[in-house]
Amino acid sequence: MNAIKKLGMLVLLIAAPAMAIASGAGIHLDTAPVNLKDQASLQRGAKLFTSRCLACHSASYMRYNRLTDIGMSEEQIKKELEMPEDVKIGSTMQAAMDPNSAKLAYGVAPPDLSVIARSRSPDWLYTYMRSFYVDTTRTSGWNNTAFPSVGMPFVLADLQGEQVLEVEQHEGHDVKKLILKTPGSMQPAEYDAAVGDLTNYLVFMSEPSKLVREQIGWIVLAFLSILLVLVYALKKEIWKDIH
Question: How far is CA 69 from CA 96, 112, 126, 154, 199, in A?
């Protein structure tokens, strides 16, 4: 009986993280348009990341020269990403703002975004960056349906515009809906595409060698398949006169 109880507790402990995620996943996550083979998208995402995110967030495991993997030359990296003159091409991506200053300004130090796509998921990031709305009760003036009470201000507001949150009753349940009140410089479809590019880049940055790793994997599998055929043929040749 004790063994059964222990087994039951073990199952609950294993399932607890998944249950917690499910209970906290009360929002609908839109599917992120991730395509690591689309170098044009990755380049646009890199530009948006360095111009908007890198002011406060670091990517301390990512070096600028890794962007050559997505088709950018070193000259393009320096010019199009507007790298400071004192930053070398082999340097890691460090935030312009000091972490202590950022903590004083926002109440919490902005997290490093090197592997954010792996810890949060691409769909969550894509949804999050399209879910900010005006909230005058917040110090920053913004809130987010995917991340309630987030300390981050909406740095893409000039692109998307200002959304407001409306809550409607539907079959006895509150249904939250975001309405674009003041348009930004981009049309909604353009903004979604830009956020898709940014998400795509964040996925690439989380594992820059993923495509190369997968290519090597297919090459290894092809080699082993050929080797299997040769070994089987050799085995038949050796044993044909024995039986």
Answer: 24, 21, 23, 30, 17
Q: What is the pLDDT of residues 172-206, one digit of tens each?
A: 777 889 999 999 999 999 999 999 999 999 999 99
Contacts of residue 38, defined as CB under 8 A and 6 or more positions apart, other chains included, come to 200
DSSP assignment of 135-176: -TTSSSSEEESSSTT-----TTHHHHEEEEEEEEEETTEEEE
pLDDT at 105: 74
Q: Dihedral angle at the C-alpha atoms of 195, 197, 199, 203, nearest 10 degrees?
A: 180
Instruction: Specify the amino acid at residue 163.
Output: Q
Which helix H or strand E contains 179, and what residues bound it?
strand 173-183
Q: Give 127: exposed, middle or buried? Use CB within 10 Å, 0-12, 13-18, 19+.
A: buried
Contact between residue 121 and residue 93 where contact means Cβ atoms under 8 Å apart? no
Q: Which two tokens stand for residue 171?
A: 């079959």
Question: Of 36, 63, 198, whose CA–CA distance to 128 is shortest?
Answer: 198
Q: What is the DSSP letter of 91?
A: S
What's the pLDDT at 144? 96
Q: Token pair of 45, please?
A: 């995402």
Q: Which residue ranges in the chain fall short of pLDDT 70?
A: 1-26, 243
Cα separation, 85 vs 76, whole angstroms: 14
pLDDT at 57: 94
